[in-house]
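Sequence only, no structure available. Ideas?
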Amino acid sequence: MVWKIAIACFLVAATVGVHAVGLAQLLTLLVKAHALPPARLWPITWLLIRMAWALILIHAVEITVWGLFYFEAGCLPTFSSAVYFSGVTYCTIGYGDLLLPNSWRMLAPIEGLTGILMCGLSAGLFFAVVNRLFGKRFGAKTS
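Reply:
I predicted one. C-alpha coordinates follow.
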Protein backbone atom coordinates (compact mmCIF):
# COMPACT_ATOMS: atom_id res chain seq x y z
CA MET A 1 0.00 0.00 0.00
CA VAL A 2 2.86 2.41 0.83
CA TRP A 3 4.39 2.04 -2.64
CA LYS A 4 1.01 2.84 -4.23
CA ILE A 5 0.87 6.04 -2.22
CA ALA A 6 4.41 6.79 -3.40
CA ILE A 7 3.29 6.22 -7.01
CA ALA A 8 0.33 8.55 -6.46
CA CYS A 9 2.68 11.20 -5.04
CA PHE A 10 4.96 10.82 -8.06
CA LEU A 11 2.01 11.20 -10.47
CA VAL A 12 0.81 14.30 -8.62
CA ALA A 13 4.34 15.76 -8.74
CA ALA A 14 4.62 14.97 -12.46
CA THR A 15 1.27 16.63 -13.09
CA VAL A 16 2.21 19.76 -11.14
CA GLY A 17 5.58 19.84 -12.89
CA VAL A 18 4.01 19.63 -16.35
CA HIS A 19 1.55 22.35 -15.39
CA ALA A 20 4.25 24.62 -13.97
CA VAL A 21 6.42 24.28 -17.08
CA GLY A 22 3.41 24.77 -19.35
CA LEU A 23 2.20 27.88 -17.51
CA ALA A 24 5.73 29.31 -17.44
CA GLN A 25 6.01 28.84 -21.20
CA LEU A 26 2.57 30.32 -21.77
CA LEU A 27 3.29 33.32 -19.54
CA THR A 28 6.61 33.90 -21.33
CA LEU A 29 4.80 33.91 -24.67
CA LEU A 30 2.09 36.23 -23.36
CA VAL A 31 4.65 38.71 -22.03
CA LYS A 32 6.70 38.67 -25.25
CA ALA A 33 3.70 38.88 -27.58
CA HIS A 34 1.71 41.51 -25.69
CA ALA A 35 3.86 44.27 -24.30
CA LEU A 36 0.81 46.42 -25.02
CA PRO A 37 -2.33 44.36 -24.39
CA PRO A 38 -4.93 44.39 -27.16
CA ALA A 39 -7.84 46.75 -26.65
CA ARG A 40 -10.28 45.69 -29.36
CA LEU A 41 -12.79 42.84 -29.15
CA TRP A 42 -11.42 40.48 -31.83
CA PRO A 43 -7.75 40.66 -30.79
CA ILE A 44 -8.80 40.02 -27.18
CA THR A 45 -11.02 37.13 -28.29
CA TRP A 46 -8.19 35.65 -30.39
CA LEU A 47 -5.81 35.94 -27.42
CA LEU A 48 -8.25 34.11 -25.13
CA ILE A 49 -8.85 31.39 -27.75
CA ARG A 50 -5.13 30.77 -28.06
CA MET A 51 -4.80 30.68 -24.29
CA ALA A 52 -7.62 28.13 -24.08
CA TRP A 53 -5.94 25.97 -26.72
CA ALA A 54 -2.60 26.11 -24.87
CA LEU A 55 -4.20 25.29 -21.51
CA ILE A 56 -6.16 22.39 -22.99
CA LEU A 57 -2.92 21.05 -24.48
CA ILE A 58 -1.22 21.29 -21.07
CA HIS A 59 -4.12 19.44 -19.43
CA ALA A 60 -4.11 16.82 -22.21
CA VAL A 61 -0.43 16.09 -21.52
CA GLU A 62 -1.20 15.69 -17.81
CA ILE A 63 -4.13 13.39 -18.54
CA THR A 64 -1.89 11.35 -20.83
CA VAL A 65 0.74 10.96 -18.08
CA TRP A 66 -1.87 9.38 -15.78
CA GLY A 67 -3.31 7.32 -18.66
CA LEU A 68 0.13 6.03 -19.57
CA PHE A 69 0.63 4.88 -16.00
CA TYR A 70 -2.78 3.15 -15.90
CA PHE A 71 -1.97 1.33 -19.14
CA GLU A 72 1.61 0.37 -18.22
CA ALA A 73 0.52 -0.85 -14.77
CA GLY A 74 -2.12 -3.07 -16.42
CA CYS A 75 -4.99 -1.21 -14.75
CA LEU A 76 -6.87 -0.85 -18.04
CA PRO A 77 -6.69 -3.04 -21.13
CA THR A 78 -5.90 -0.49 -23.87
CA PHE A 79 -4.04 2.80 -24.05
CA SER A 80 -7.12 4.58 -25.38
CA SER A 81 -9.29 3.30 -22.53
CA ALA A 82 -6.61 4.32 -20.02
CA VAL A 83 -6.43 7.87 -21.41
CA TYR A 84 -10.23 8.07 -21.60
CA PHE A 85 -10.55 6.95 -17.97
CA SER A 86 -7.85 9.41 -16.96
CA GLY A 87 -9.63 12.24 -18.78
CA VAL A 88 -13.02 11.69 -17.18
CA THR A 89 -11.36 11.27 -13.80
CA TYR A 90 -9.08 14.31 -14.11
CA CYS A 91 -12.05 16.48 -15.11
CA THR A 92 -14.15 14.92 -12.31
CA ILE A 93 -16.83 13.77 -14.76
CA GLY A 94 -16.58 10.17 -13.56
CA TYR A 95 -18.94 8.36 -15.92
CA GLY A 96 -18.29 5.07 -14.15
CA ASP A 97 -18.19 3.04 -17.35
CA LEU A 98 -14.57 2.06 -16.63
CA LEU A 99 -13.10 1.32 -13.22
CA LEU A 100 -9.62 0.68 -11.93
CA PRO A 101 -8.91 -2.68 -10.29
CA ASN A 102 -9.68 -2.67 -6.57
CA SER A 103 -6.02 -2.53 -5.63
CA TRP A 104 -5.54 0.73 -7.61
CA ARG A 105 -8.89 2.46 -6.95
CA MET A 106 -7.45 5.07 -4.59
CA LEU A 107 -5.57 6.65 -7.49
CA ALA A 108 -8.80 7.85 -9.14
CA PRO A 109 -9.84 10.32 -6.42
CA ILE A 110 -6.25 11.53 -6.14
CA GLU A 111 -6.20 12.20 -9.88
CA GLY A 112 -9.56 13.97 -9.60
CA LEU A 113 -8.29 16.22 -6.82
CA THR A 114 -5.15 16.95 -8.81
CA GLY A 115 -7.22 17.81 -11.87
CA ILE A 116 -9.38 20.20 -9.84
CA LEU A 117 -6.24 21.96 -8.58
CA MET A 118 -4.69 22.22 -12.05
CA CYS A 119 -7.96 23.50 -13.56
CA GLY A 120 -8.07 26.07 -10.75
CA LEU A 121 -4.58 27.28 -11.69
CA SER A 122 -5.69 27.57 -15.32
CA ALA A 123 -8.81 29.50 -14.32
CA GLY A 124 -6.63 31.78 -12.21
CA LEU A 125 -4.44 32.53 -15.23
CA PHE A 126 -7.53 33.34 -17.30
CA PHE A 127 -8.77 35.65 -14.54
CA ALA A 128 -5.41 37.42 -14.32
CA VAL A 129 -5.26 37.99 -18.08
CA VAL A 130 -8.86 39.20 -18.33
CA ASN A 131 -8.28 41.45 -15.30
CA ARG A 132 -5.21 42.89 -16.99
CA LEU A 133 -7.04 43.42 -20.29
CA PHE A 134 -10.15 45.02 -18.86
CA GLY A 135 -8.97 46.41 -15.51
CA LYS A 136 -7.59 49.64 -16.94
CA ARG A 137 -10.64 50.11 -19.12
CA PHE A 138 -12.98 50.03 -16.12
CA GLY A 139 -10.75 51.96 -13.74
CA ALA A 140 -9.62 49.01 -11.61
CA LYS A 141 -6.06 48.82 -10.35
CA THR A 142 -3.94 46.05 -11.89
CA SER A 143 -0.51 44.99 -10.80
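The radius of gyration is 18 Å.
Hope that gets you unstuck.
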